[in-house]
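User: Hey, quick favor. My workstation is busy. Could you predict this chain's structure for me?
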Amino acid sequence: MLTYKGKDFYLDGEKLKIYSGAIHYFRTVPEYWEDRLLKLKAAGFNTVETYTCWNLHEKKPGEFDFDGILDIVKFLETAKKIGLYAIVRPGPYICAEWDFGGLPAWLLKDKSMRVRCMYKPYLDAVSNYYHELLPRLLPLCHENGGNIIAMQVENEYGSYGNDKEYLRFIVDLMRDCGVKELLFTSDGAQDDMLSGGTLPDILKVANFGSRTSYSFRKLKEYQGFKAPSMCGEFWNGWFDHFGEKHHHRAAAPVISELKTMLRSGASFNFYMFHGGTNFGFTAGANYDKYYQPTITSYDDNALLNEWGGYTDKYYAVRKELLSAQSLPETELPQEPLRQTIGDVKLTKYAAFIDNIEALGEKHESVSPESMEQFGQNFGFICYHHHLVGKYGGKLYLDGLADRAYVFVNKEYKGVIDRNDKKQCMDLHGLSGENDIDILVEAMGRVNYGPHLLDRKGVEQIRINYQILSHWDIYTLPLDNIDKVNYTDSKGLDTPTFMRGTFKATSRADCFVHTAGLKKGYIFINGFCLGRYWDIGPQESLYIPGTILKDENEIVVLELECSLKTTVRIDDRHNLSGGKRRKKFLFF
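Assistant: No problem, here it is.
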């Protein structure tokens, strides 16, 4: 069992320095897990760290999924086979730039919900999840012959709250579920975070990307000098929001901080070693002064890039780590194979508004409700109202989250965004009977900070001061788009599904380029690659070769009326652009 005494960790009585790298099993297709883990070990790391994603493991209350990309047991067993220890961070909250910080959307059906505190309905849900998850991991714990040597209590809790009773509840719950391995908390290296997020008897580690010596001194103020120094998240890169330039951190400052950690005898976890991809609708968002959705790529400027390729930073860190441990260089696994498909024509079209009933489930409600009220996790929600009478002025969408496409009599009228100063648009002389449809896109729930309760949809819809009542509401998770009814003609001014086909003679990776498209989603053989948006920085979406077939279908859901009807699939990745720049400082 992992223990500590003085400044050192001990595993079964032998000193151990933990050199860990983060890889999230749910962001990399299972066929590539072994490759990424082999590259981690080849770089001189001895441990892999991963979060668990509650929102995918329990998409509906009491219904659990641990198969395919969610098979954490297989992921950890693969790491053990390779010779890696493991650190598991089971949340329940994980942040991770992941939708709702990994909390399941169905929690928000309770309009009184409070998360990450001693609110009983939340605690009951956490308990149910842990009693399903943790017994699966017990056979993989080191005391039982497995490779899990430590688990985290909550996640950066001092960045959110100071409910020590809640933290104690999580500790006791983990122990009640049978976890005997070392537990720890991790928080930013500053007073308020370490004050609010720690417990006296639980090991504390600090998260930072620079100022290593200062951060460890600050940690010691709370940890004391009779415990090891460990960086729970060493931020060697950073994630991107839509509209920013891609964050890049050169190898030199990373190596400088790494040397400081090695000289001080510290342990550490590189966050991320390999970031992977926010496939589908899983990317989260931040909210400070305004709403900032995270891009599909979770490249994170990590040591391995999004598709598992080597970077200059990988080679630099590998050299330093192998030298520090007097380990020889071994032959590296090959670079991922990539291929070029070429241009693909999109020849079939379907207006989204004409397929609402085919794709959605209908609900009737006096007032608009969020998608969480209907058990919907991701995608779109459409509000339909039959308006009778004479109307003008403005249509208001109160409490909009996140982006709405407005139709009158199925004619597209424009878009309203939650970041607009006023969530409204002009109506022009409606009289008689008219159908109003509000199609709302959920672009990722907030995953960090005080605005976690980020329900998706619209709270209230009105014309001027008149609140509109009685709505047909269609939930549109788009988890199956087979029922889309295509035609040969394309509407030029409405959100549209566009379909094409292509052949693939290889199962190598590739990228579909979004230049000329404006905003939307791309599906390959029914698998949603994720979101695109022409404000950057992402200008291509990653296609794992494992989802390809000999004959393939591509569907582009273009929301903002691009005229482009051809896309290119090739071996080049494009992650650099962006229309506005936000400065980021490493803490």
